[in-house]
């Protein structure tokens, strides 16, 4: 008997970047708590996000929390190769214009969440005014402008045709728009599920490579022969290589194959499924041939097959969905 059904998942799953989707080792202290919405954040930032989320009608605490999850995983020391800084990933020029002294200490510090979080909300409100006359979904236009600039959204009269921007908008919207999840059991690490999803999201477009991928990232495998007996060498991921990599970024060590990963995880009932969980396909625990990372709303990120690339896929992309499972506590290695 299968662990769950696609129909049940579609009706009962909720979307949230919450580390309740992953289980801490026994005795660990939870790093965050549910906002009363659909996104979970570290407890230190809950009040800041709830307050900043009231800055204007176009910004909600849930939207702000989802954006910060995507931007930095709530890491106030994050810095991108392009030079974006802090928990809200402000570029220096943008910070110079939109950064505020949120905590009243006389400084505008991009590295200080007490300044950066309210600044992010203020910037979103400013963007909302810039794109208010652009047709289409207002929230998605705002997110697109946060990523690509208001000028690009006005130019294209909606979300620009940039792959990065479209993926950015899709991910944050999925996280922000769903109802709150039911409370799970056990202690959870708030940041881990968000880290897993963010790591996988960054690999969108990476080539499929049979046998490719490890905890450090894409690696050499073959394409496009599933049995590896022929085909050119390609650097990328296969399905379980992608999950090994994404979970490793959250300090969680997974075994290499889909079947091994299922054996190291706890099968879930439909009402327990949350983003960050693993989605398995096959006929039995010993015959699982595919695994992806659930992101909510019936979607997952996966490395689907030879000749394809890492992408967003609907959960009904294959007919033999076996079930969804969550790595057990002994797989977790806190970093």
CATH topology of the largest domain: the name is: endopeptidase fold (from Nostoc punctiforme)
Mean pLDDT: 81
- The H-and-E topology, N to C, reads as HEEHHHHHHHHEEHHEEEEEE
Query: What's the N-to-C terminus distance?
Result: 37 Å
Number of strands: 10
Tell me what portion of residues adopts beta-strand conformation: 5-15%
Which segments are poorly predicted (pLDDT under 50) over 5 or more consecutive residues?
A: 1-37, 180-190, 331-335
Quaternary state of the chains: single chain
Strand line-up in the sheet with most strands? 5-10-6-7-8-9
Radius of gyration, in angstroms, nearest whole number? 20 Å
Our count of domains comes out at: 2
Q: Helix- and strand-based class?
A: alpha+beta
Supply the CATH class of the largest domain: Alpha Beta
Largest sheet: 6 strands, antiparallel
Binned, the helix content reads 25-40%
Bulk shape: globular
CATH fourth-tier homologous superfamily of the largest domain: endopeptidase domain like (from Nostoc punctiforme)
- The number of helices is 11
CATH architecture of the largest domain: Alpha-Beta Complex
Write up this protein.
By secondary structure, the chain is α+β, with helices and mostly antiparallel strands. The protein folds into 2 domains: 39-176, Lysozyme, CATH 1.10.530; 190-331, endopeptidase fold (from Nostoc punctiforme) (Alpha-Beta Complex), CATH 3.90.1720. Helices cover 34% and strands 15% of the residues. It contains 11 helices and 10 strands. It has a 6-stranded antiparallel sheet. A two-stranded antiparallel ribbon has the order 1-2. The protein is globular and about 60 Å long.
